[in-house]
């Protein structure tokens, strides 16, 4: 099994760094505790598969016990290829993670003919919420990493006029369910390295907006900013907890004026 091949002390240094960075995010924000049941949202991409690996390996090392289950959303309009489906199933079985393929409509009637990245993401979350409720699971883990969070922050700041992002832990329905993002302090480059070196069974999702979504368009700007400061992603992430209180009154006044 892959978790047997990469258990400490045999775990290579590059993988150990990834696992420690994942653990840093989990511990800093109290994401996963003893006795928790966690539903993994698996997309088939490098991020969610690397997350599944990290959480499975950590179960072997930590003095706590938690249950993992995976849900793979499969759009009716873009079915997953049988070979990819089999590879994902074998991978999750190796990690000792039970899983289900959730075949759903990518364009539900509630969209009223509209479709964009926001609506698609909202639809996927709704499906995961329903699955978590069916399984009586309170925590849903998603594979968003540090770059995703930095990109979302800049998209909201520069294009939507608000300072917000995907938080490491987010409560929904008055605390009935939580979304956690264990890779929140891990760079995308680190995740890519892990996926490449371990040949994780990634597959490309069919997406009508794959080449035009905002996240892809904002990436070059963060890359350019990192030429000025290599830790720009970390700084953007930290800014959400470093709001300067001296400017709060001015912010309220400005808000009143704009209204």
What would your notes on this structure say?
- There is one protein chain.
- With 259 residues, the protein is an alpha/beta fold.
- The chain has one domain: Rossmann fold (3-Layer(aba) Sandwich).
- 49% of the residues lie in helices and 13% in strands.
- The chain contains ten helices and six strands, in the order H-H-E-H-E-H-E-H-E-H-E-E-H-H-H-H.
- The chain has a six-stranded mixed β-sheet, sandwiched between helices.
- The protein is globular and about 50 Å long.
- The protein starts with a helix and ends with a helix.
Number of strands: 6
**Low-confidence region ranges:** none
**Which superfamily, in CATH terms, is the homologous superfamily?**
HUPs
Whole-number total of structural domains = 1
Number of helices: 10
> Which strand order do you get reading across the main beta sheet?
3-2-1-4-6-5
Summarize the structure.
Helices cover 49% and strands 13% of the residues. It is built from ten helices and six strands.
Secondary structure topology:
Blueprint: H1 2-5, H2 13-28, E1 37-42, H3 46-61, E2 67-75, H4 82-94, E3 98-104, H5 117-135, E4 139-141, H6 146-159, E5 169-172, E6 177-180, H7 188-197, H8 214-228, H9 232-239, H10 248-258
Parallel strand pairs: 1-2, 1-4, 2-3, 4-6
Antiparallel strand pairs: 5-6
Helix pairs in contact: 2-3, 3-7, 6-8, 6-9
Key attributes of the depicted protein:
10 helices, alpha/beta, 6-stranded mixed β-sheet, Rossmann fold, 259 residues
């Amino acid at each position: 099994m892959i978790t047997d091949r990469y258990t400490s002390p045999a775990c290579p240094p590059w993988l150990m760094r990834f696992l420690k960075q994942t653990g840093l995010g989990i511990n800093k924000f109290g994401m996963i505790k003893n006795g928790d049941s966690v539903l993994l949202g698996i997309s088939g991409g490098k991020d969610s598969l690397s997350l599944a690996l990290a959480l499975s390996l950590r179960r072997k090392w930590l003095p706590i016990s938690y249950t993992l289950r995976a849900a793979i959303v499969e759009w009716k309009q873009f079915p997953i290829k049988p070979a990819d489906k089999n590879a994902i199933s074998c991978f999750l079985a190796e990690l000792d993670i039970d899983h289900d393929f959730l075949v759903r409509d990518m364009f539900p009637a509630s969209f009223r003919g509209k479709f964009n990245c926001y609506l698609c993401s909202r639809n996927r979350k709704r499906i995961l919420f329903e699955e978590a409720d069916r399984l009586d699971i309170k925590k849903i883990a998603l594979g968003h990493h540090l770059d995703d969070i930095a990109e979302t922050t800049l998209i909201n700041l520069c294009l939507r006029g608000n300072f917000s992002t995907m938080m490491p832990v987010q409560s929904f329905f008055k605390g009935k369910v939580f979304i956690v993002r264990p890779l929140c302090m891990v760079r995308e480059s680190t995740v890519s390295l892990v996926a490449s070196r371990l040949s994780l069974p990634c597959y490309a999702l069919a997406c009508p907006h794959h080449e035009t979504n905002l996240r892809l368009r904002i990436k070059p700007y963060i890359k350019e900013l990192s030429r000025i400061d290599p830790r720009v992603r970390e700084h953007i992430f930290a800014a959400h907890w470093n709001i300067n209180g001296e400017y709060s009154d001015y912010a309220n006044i400005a808000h009143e004026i704009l209204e």
